[in-house]
Amino acid sequence: MPEHPTGHRPTLEAVAARAGVSRATVSRVVNGGAGVRQLVADKVREAVAELGYVPNPAARTLVTRRTGAVAVIIAEPEVRIFSDPFFSQQVRGISKELNAHDTQLVLLLVEGPEDYERIARYLAGGHVDGALAFSLHADDPLPAIATRIGLPTVYGGRPAWTPAPGGPAGVTYVDADNRGGARLAVRHLADRGRTRIAHIAGPGDMTSATDRLDGYRDALPPACPPMVAEGDYTVEGGARAMADLLERHPELDAVFAASDQMAVGALRVLRERARRVPQDVALVGFDDMRSVAECADPPLTTVHQDIEGMGRMMARLLLGALDRDRGGILAPTSLITPTRLVRRDSA
Amino acid sequence: MPEHPTGHRPTLEAVAARAGVSRATVSRVVNGGAGVRQLVADKVREAVAELGYVPNPAARTLVTRRTGAVAVIIAEPEVRIFSDPFFSQQVRGISKELNAHDTQLVLLLVEGPEDYERIARYLAGGHVDGALAFSLHADDPLPAIATRIGLPTVYGGRPAWTPAPGGPAGVTYVDADNRGGARLAVRHLADRGRTRIAHIAGPGDMTSATDRLDGYRDALPPACPPMVAEGDYTVEGGARAMADLLERHPELDAVFAASDQMAVGALRVLRERARRVPQDVALVGFDDMRSVAECADPPLTTVHQDIEGMGRMMARLLLGALDRDRGGILAPTSLITPTRLVRRDSA
DNA sequence: CGCGGCCCGGAGAGCGCTCCCGCAACAACG
DNA sequence: CGTTGTTGCGGGAGCGCTCTCCGGGCCGCG
Questions:
Q1: Do B225 and B196 belong to one domain?
Q2: How many domains does chain A have?
Q3: Which Pfam families does the record associate with it (chains A, B) (predicted)?
Q4: Strand order in the sheet with B197-201
Q5: Fewer CB within 10 Å, N or C, chain A?
Q6: Nearest nucleotide by C1' from B35 CA?
Q7: Where are the alpha helices (DSSP H) in chain B?
Q8: B59–A62 CB contact, under 8 Å
Q9: Nearest CA in chain A to B86
Q10: pLDDT, tens only, B30-71
């Protein structure tokens, strides 16, 4: 393949000259070749190969008004993105789906509130055809930006301003069945004879946390009083919440933690307080982060969700809207993926 | 701010008309405003604000031949990217630096060998001004592609075909002082009176692993015979390697694992075999992945490296070359960032 | 009061591509 | 044999921007 390190790259014009046809014909061949005789098309393709022609995306975008790229926007405090391969997995799912459709992934990491102006400018600039946005807190300015600009956007995780799953959505999002998963966890604990089941909840401004809390309340046996402490999805937060729970409710015999990270923190505190897991206190996590759940001691019973699949679904939804007659109409649907319990040793 | 959900966005022309000046003047103002009187510039800026004008990046790229974007290429088997927040951190460092220079981050995940053709096409297409590439194995086709195209590229981690650090580089890369860090770890174990120090190495085709192995050999006390088993940087691999070591060298009293993940695997096996850590066997990891090292039982003594800083440096190096008279000349330099020992309880 | 220099702003030529339209050439039909 | 339809290809306009000229005003200085 020829190279063009510094000298200008060949243009359509050059290919046309070489193949003895017009620019338009080369363009047709490059874009699928409909309406061109086999003979001519082959000649063009040969010229393309000889010159090492690659279309200039900027020129193409200028006229087609499509960029072939979507933004992935991740707004998450450092603490979580660091300790948690959640986004890596989700992004990988997205990437796989986008690759299959020759679409590029532009990563926008939100470091702080001041970044939103930059991101708004970027999205308004028409750099991308659509966006995938993650983990929005209640007051996140992003949705407003996206709708103002009219950018097709799919959300990962139920956005905070959205009614609980099942209700009318207003936006398109993909989420795990957090509530159902929490029910699974609590029911499992109850089935194992536990009657004092506590909950370590996630941050109250995140729907994944509140949905899991709702699931806990749903499945709690009538005789068992709700016992809840709030963590922040981190190991430290889980430890603090566990200590708090033990102080307030020393009689507890089971804990459902809203994340594996918090479960690990709880595990540490339980060990310090000489409560055996699962004999004295049974423990169930959430997320099934393998590197965390499997390596814990004892390995964590937890609720599994298909993270990569969720990423894939998000991308698929967006690409569908982008393809469909280029309208970018995104039917407001919520797609809830199932969760399941993975039994290990902690409960 | 006005919106333009569907109707066409305002162009330079429109702004010019509104401000009563020419296109060229508006362009000057938008790009810094040098050579324009204050009065006129203000008028233009007002028109820009009123119309909600945002420059069309495609049109700009078409003439300037700069995209304002760089590719981040991550080629790593799933197993590692999943379990390991390493890339999240590195990418975050890169993102911070790029944001500060109004440059976009296009993420290219390599899923398999067949993806390289797609990536080559993408890079050749001139979508990006430069690239940052990670964790290249010896036979990785990427460097060849990058040089053929003439794309300024900075590598993360010493590429396999490159001579050991210190020698002439040939390419630009940023890496942690793996060898020095390994020396630190082994020396620490020796200082604590250990005389039978084994090593769980990473995959032999990765320079981070071989450099750490070299450091282990450097610092091993003369009286201590080398005892090495190879893992693959995963928990499971670490467990297998530990089992192997215990079988071959039951007399060992210390282990230096080339990653925290593998150290956790080793920890599990040691516990199963009723060897106390650190009393019977002292253990040191590498990477200082906080979520892993801190949550292990006992918390891991490990070698810390500034991962986010490395990402930052990579971006800074690339941006420097991109700025410098737009030549994109990248002086082949290797930048080695220091490591340090973090003492916790495992050694 | 005149002239050279300087600074500000405008006109216009593209960047490389797509796509609409129009013109051939040929088949089919009355 | 003229007319219409069909298919294959070329011409040309234009996407929205930057940047190189170039001209016109205004200053200072002689």
A1: yes
A2: 3
A3: LacI, Peripla_BP_3
A4: B227-230, B197-201, B254-257, B282-287, B301-305, B339-342
A5: N
A6: C8
A7: 12-19, 23-30, 38-51, 57-64, 78-83, 86-100, 115-124, 142-149, 178-191, 207-219, 235-248, 260-272, 290-293, 307-323
A8: yes
A9: A82
A10: 888 777 888 888 888 999 999 999 999 999 999 999 999 999
Using the structure block, give the residue that is written with the tokens 């003979």: A39
Range of the domain at B194: 178-306
Q: Does B326 touch chain A (CB under 8 A)?
A: no
- Partner residue facing A56 (CB), from B9, B126, B261: B126
Of A64, A84, A100, which residue constitutes the final position of a domain?
A64
Q: To probe the interface with B, which of A88, A96, A114, A148 has the most B CB atoms within 10 Å?
A: A88
Nearest nucleotide relative to B34: CA against C1': C8
CATH of the domain at B189: 3.40.50.2300
The reply to whether B131 falls in a domain is yes
Position A202 scores a pLDDT of: 94
pLDDT of residue A326: 46
Minimum Cα–Cα distance from B263: chain A residue: A295
Does any domain span residue B282?
yes
- Protein CA at A341 to nucleotide C1' at D19, angstroms: 64
With a cut of 80, say whether residue A117 has pLDDT above it: yes
Q: Are residues B182 and B300 in the same domain?
A: yes
| Phi/psi-derived region of residue A52, left when phi > 0, alpha when psi is between -120 and 50, beta in every other case | left
pLDDT confidence bin for B298, thresholds 50/70/90: confident
pLDDT tens profile B263-286: 999 998 999 999 999 999 999 999
Rounded to the nearest angstrom, the minimum Cα separation between B205 and chain A is 23
Please indicate, yes or no, whether residues A195 and A257 belong to a single structural domain of this protein: yes
- Report which residue type is found at B298: P
CA A18 – CA A40 distance, rounded (Å): 12
Domain match, A232 and A269 both: yes
Q: Same domain for B294 and B192?
A: yes
Which is nearest to A282 in space by CA: A181, A186, A154? A186
A271 and A189 together in one domain = yes
Asked if pLDDT for residue A329 goes beyond 80, the answer is no
Q: Do B188 and B297 have their domain in common?
A: yes
DSSP helix/strand/coil, B226: coil
Residues in chain B: 347
- pTM for this prediction: 0.89
pLDDT 10s digits, A49-102: 999 999 999 999 999 999 999 999 998 765 555 556 778 888 999 999 999 999
The secondary element (H helix, E strand) that includes residue B168 is none
Whether residues B294 and A126 touch (CB distance < 8 A) is answered with: no
